[in-house]
Each structure stands twice: as C-alpha cells, then as structure tokens.
Amino acid sequence: MALIGLIPHSQSFSNLRKLSSKRLRKKRRSQSVTDPNNLSHMSDQIEISIRIRDLHSAPSSNESRFVCVVYENDSDNEDRWNLVGCSKPVTRQGGTLKFRDKFPLRYVFEKYQLIRVNICSYNVRSSPTRLLHKSVGACIFKLDELTGSFGLQLRKALHHEVSIGTAMNAHRCLPNLVGAIMITGCIPDKEQPIVIQFCGKSLEKKDFIWDETAVFFRVYRIEEDPFGEDDDVRVQLYESEALKNHSHPQWKAFSLPTREVADDRNRLLEVWVYYRDVDGTEAAIGKFLTTYAKMKYGAGPDNVYNVINENKKQQKKKYDNSGRLELTKFTDVSFYSFLDYIVSGTQLHFEISVDFSGHQGFSESQRAKYDADFLLAMRAIGEIIRDYSPNRLFPAFGFGAKLPPIYQESHEFCLNFSVDPACRGLDGIAEAYRSASALVRSADSACYAPVINYVNRIAQKNASGLHYHILVIFTTGRTIDDYK
Predict the structure, then answer these.
(1) In terms of pLDDT, which residue wins out, 362 or 14?
(2) How many CA within 13 A on the CB side of residue 7?
(3) DSSP β-bridge partners for residue 351
(4) What is the extent of the structural domain holding 401?
(5) Is the pLDDT of residue 270 over 50?
(6) What's the CA angle centered on 224, arms 222 and 230, to 5 degrees?
(7) Where is pLDDT greater, at 294 or 167?
(8) Which of 120, 155, 186 is the last residue of a domain?
(9) DSSP secondary structure string for all residues of 84-146
(10) Which of 125, 49, 52 is closest to 87 using CA atoms?
(11) 93 Cβ partners below 8 Å, 6+ apart?
(12) Alpha-helical segments (H) within 386-471
C-alpha cells in the first residue's frame, strides 16, 4: 500500500514546523494531538514493564531495595518530565531487578514521546521528585523505538547520568555504564463487540381482533448469586425497540460487549419477549435461553428459538410455543489500530521526492532559507517514521531539473545520483539533497507522475500487506500533470 503526501512550497514550508516534534505544543489545543480531549480516538494504550540486568553499581548496606520511576516528556526540555508512575520496592537479586508493576502509556503516532526510566535506591523518605535527580541508573528512549522493535522488546544501556541530548545522540558513547535495561511492551486487550439481530415469527397477541400492542424483547445475562441465598441473578444487557407487528417483527441490529456476553464459556443468556399496551402496560409473551457459543453458528436452524410461556405450558397439554425468534445476524467485530498493525509486523517505508523547477531566480539568502525549510520539514516527518523502518534506508528522488552533463530535463532521478535511490538515514537524504542542488539546474516545468508511478511499482512488489509506503513530495509550485 502506498500513501502520497503532497507538500507545496507555495504554502510555505514554515507551516510544516507544526509537524516538528519540538513544536507540537505550539499548535492550538483544539487541534493538538497532545490535547487530552483528542487522545481517545487518536491514541493507543500500551503498558511497559521493566527488568534490570547486570546492575554493577557498588551497593552499600542501605541499597538492597530499589524502585523504578517512569516519566514522560513531549519535548526536548529537561524541565518538562511528567511522572507516569512509581513501582513497588523490589529486592536486588545479584545484578537483577525485576519490577512486577506495569506502567500505562498513551501512544500517539504523531506525538514526540520520550520515556525516562530511573532506577533508584529506596527509602521511606523517597519521593518521585527527588528520585528524578537522585538515581542509581537511568535510561531515556523514544516510545517509537519500543513500538517499532521486534516483539515489543527494547534493550538499552543503563547509565548513572543521562540527558535528552546525550540519549538521542546515537553517535555519542555515554560513560558510567551501570547495567542493562529490558523494556517490554504489552497492548491490553481491546473491547471487541458482537452484533446481533433477531426477527420474530407468529408471536402471540393480546387480542386477536383489536390488538394495538407493540412487541419488544430484553436480553439478560444469568449470574449466580454470590451469597448463594437466592435464585440466579439476571442482569439486563439490552432492550429492543417496540414494533407493532406480531406476525413478523424485524428488530434493529444491536451490539453487546463480548466480555459481558462471553466472559464465561457456559454463560447463559435469557431473552424475554414482551408486549406493551398503548397505556404502557407490559406483559410477558415468553422467553428462551441461548449462549454466545450457540449464536456464533449464525443464522440457521440451530438459532431458531421457541418462545415459551411457562404458565401456558403448564396449563395446556398441547402447548408448543408462543411464537418464535430467529437469529438473523451474528458478527464478531474486530477493531485493529495502527499500533496493532505495527506490532504484527507491518513496516513503514519513507520515500521523498523534491521539485527543483522553482529554484531559478533565487537569491543566495532565498536559497538558504529554502534549503533550511526543506531540511526541517523532511526531518519533522522522517523522525516520526524512521523508527518503523528496520533498515533506515530511504529512497529519495528529484524531478523538475536539468541533469548534467548535457542538462537534459528529467522528472525522475535518484537524488544521490546513483542507480539505487536509497539513502542511509535522514542524514543521507540531507547530504544527497545538498549535492544534487549544487549539480542540477531548474527546469521550466515539473511532473511528479513518474516518481509516483515508480513508488507505486515498489509498493506493488511488496503487496503482502506487511509494507506501507509513504511518499512525500516537496513541490515549488503547480505541476503540469495534475490530471494524472
């Protein structure tokens, strides 16, 4: 699958600064992904657990028990750490610490999320505020690193002192190594509803001639009395709409949470069918029993139920039923989030294409600003995606340029002037862009269809569903092949 994003320079690259992880907080609260009001439908819940190995700090007599404190930060500011939680104290076993507590986090794809783990010696006067600055060892990582890792497991080094700047610099070797930390993520089970629909057949009427009643049903789950004193307890789960059609009522489909219907393999469900008079008076037509396991067979003879009225059954020798209810729909609904796909092995591939057609006439200062804006926008997007690409190789293309040595116009060329468009990391893209800018000349027009078709062919080769391609096109104006 391929997703194409078109970013025109005519709207100014400065608008893309809002995409930068460092500038997310500058967006209006109503639009920000950090706004708690938006998190419910833009985020996923993930729980992390912590384990320490090879802890070789010199323990004194009062350093036998430790706590794990987790903080979250959505910026590069060291003063903006927010407490997520603190574990219960655990006793050191050799060089190993295993914390049983799980720390819940809200994962947002577009959000810059730094996680800090502090391992601190425990005493009764410890507080999370003090523990932030007084720890035996600490680790800082991006939540993207964990969600993009194989098996939701991330191994990092534990250092005595660590800051955001040093932790995010992959080329810098930190001193004071005190151990290793294993971060394991877990996605809690999501609520999976089931969709059910019933229709009725020949349900009894109150009056055969002047019947103005409406028929409806209620669904109950049967629970045992926890004290064992009374009969089974009935908990109402649903009540249908009332229909004035006893011969063949077709009620609307409804949904129920799976945990309420199938928390127990043998959980009984009781369905009562009623009629309601014009004055609001209700009376039972009958009932029947079913289970989640039985309804899962779907519509058919196994799910045609006789509605039984116990009083009439005892009074009449040839009593069969008071009508029937048939299951016409039963569906298990599964919702999969972005994080579910990533954890299941979906890989994101980041491709970019740069338009060189609008560079003619740029002064030196305009060219410098254009280059700076492009690099900022490219990194703002790429830094979000790169942790989901296992090899960190990003194809980069150019179009709308005249290429040396004869300066023939081209609308599809590798930005690194190689036969392979892949650049190693975001720094590789930046280096290729600077080199290409110095070599090419601006064309009079631009066409981005060739690059789109090229990336589309790449995506079709990886049609297994485990690869998601994102092509971002940086343009300097209108192209001549919009219709394509």
Answers:
(1) 362
(2) 23
(3) 471
(4) 346-475
(5) yes
(6) 110
(7) 294
(8) 186
(9) EEEPPPEE-BTTBEE----EEEEE-TTS--EEEEEEEE--TT--HHHHHHS-SEEEEEEHHHH
(10) 49
(11) none
(12) 425-439, 449-461
Confidence of residue 21 (pLDDT cuts 50, 70, 90): very low
How far is Cα 69 from Cα 45, in angstroms, rounded to an integer? 19
Q: What is the pLDDT of residue 34?
A: 42
Structural domains in the chain (count): 3
Rounded distance between C-alpha atoms, residue 392 and residue 394, angstroms: 6
Task: Note whether 377 and 324 are same-domain residues.
Answer: no
Half-sphere exposure of 281 (CA within 13 A, CB side): 7
- What strands, in cross-sheet order, belong to the sheet with 324-332? 254-257, 193-201, 324-332, 304-306
Q: Crossing angle of helices 425-439/364-385, nearest 10°?
A: 150
- Secondary element (H or E) of residue 258: helix 258-261
Task: Name the E strands within 333-391.
Answer: 347-355
Contact 189, 44 (CB under 8 A): no
Under DSSP, is residue 406 helix (H, G, I), strand (E, B) or coil?
coil
Find where tokens 């190693």 sit. 424
**Range with the poorest average pLDDT among 12-16, 49-53, 139-143, 296-300:** 12-16
Measured in residues, the chain has a length of: 484
Report yes or no on 19 lying in a domain. Answer: no
DSSP 208: S
Q: Rounded distance, CA 254 to CA 218, Å? A: 12
Contact between residue 363 and residue 345 where contact means Cβ atoms under 8 Å apart: no
Residue 20 domain flag: no
Both tokens of 37, joined, read 């009001």
Does the CA dihedral 295-301-304-308 come out positive or negative? negative
Partners of 51 in the beta sheet? 98, 182
Give the residues across from 262 on adjacent strands: none
Residues 142 and 266 in one domain: no
Average pLDDT, integer, range 65-86: 90
Q: In a 3-state reduction of DSSP, which class is residue 227? A: coil
Query: Where does a domain end: 332, 362, 386?
Result: 332
Q: For 273-332, how does the pLDDT look when each residue is reduced to its tens digit (9 = 90+)?
A: 999 888 888 999 999 999 999 999 999 999 999 999 999 998 888 899 999 999 999 998
Burial bucket for residue 323 (CB in 10 Å: 0-12, 13-18, 19+): buried
> Residue 183 phi/psi, 5° resolution?
-105, 125
Which CATH number fits the domain that encloses residue 238?
Answer: 2.60.40.150
